[in-house]
Amino acid sequence: xxxxxxxxxxxxxxxxxxxxxxxxxxxxxxxxxxxxxxxxxxxxxxxxxxxxxxxxxxxxxxxxxxxxxxxxxxxxxxxxxxxxxxxxxxxxxxxxxxxxxxxxxxxxxxxxxx
Length: 114
Hints:
The structure is a single chain. By secondary structure, the protein is mainly beta. The chain is 0% helix and 52% strand. It has strands spanning 2-6, 9-11, 17-24, 33-38, 44-51, 57-59, 67-72, 77-82, 91-97, 102-103, 108-112. The protein is globular, with a radius of gyration of 13 Å. The relative contact order is 0.33. The mean pLDDT is 96.
């Protein structure tokens, strides 16, 4: 199993970024996928955004209305569109398989700062 995140960077408050996660080694189309994040020095926040195999999505209250998770099964890729970014969104973002849970990859750093 391999999950490779990309798309992070430095953005000003109010800006946008789109993260991507390329998956391999399992049946992606049948798997629920999620994004998690970890602020430096703090615990990981799981289920920031989740998308199920049928396309149903759920979001943490902290990102609801600003973030959108999507998937492209033909490319084994899950995305996270992040709009109206805030400084408190600064974190390393990871994608994960929901069940069985697998958090992989190096993550991608998102820094929101002026």
